[in-house]
Amino acid sequence: MSIALADSRGRITVAQRDTTYRVTDLGDGSILLEPAEVLTRAELAVRLDPAFVAQLKHSAAHPEQLVPHRRRSQRRATGDA
Q: Does the pLDDT value for residue 13 go beyond 60?
């Protein structure tokens, strides 16, 4: 068991940055936080596409067949695109 102290805005830190949680209200004033991976509808559609999945598996199995990408122009030194 651990105890967390809320800051002046009522917030507590629960884990590492950029972690997504599924929140369940248990009805007695407590909540359950479970780590979650959230996909957009577009990501889900791609992952469920058998042709795309087959292409990914083939690429992973044969990295020597990958075609390297060549940038046509250099980015500016300031980091602007």
A: yes
How many other C-beta atoms are found inside a 10 Å radius of the C-beta of residue 21?
14
For the chain, first and last CA: distance in Å?
A: 48
Residue 64 in tokens: 């020597």
Q: How many angstroms separate the CA atoms of 32 and 3, rounded?
A: 15
Report residue 61 as tokens. Answer: 């199995």
**How many residues are present in the chain?**
81
What is the phi/psi pair of residue 29, to 5°? 95, -5
Which residue type, as a one-letter code, is found at position 31? I
Phi-psi region of 51 (alpha: psi -120 to 50; beta: other; left: phi over 0): alpha
Alpha-carbon dihedral angle through residues 47, 50, 51, 56, given to the nearest 10 degrees: 50
Model pTM score: 0.44
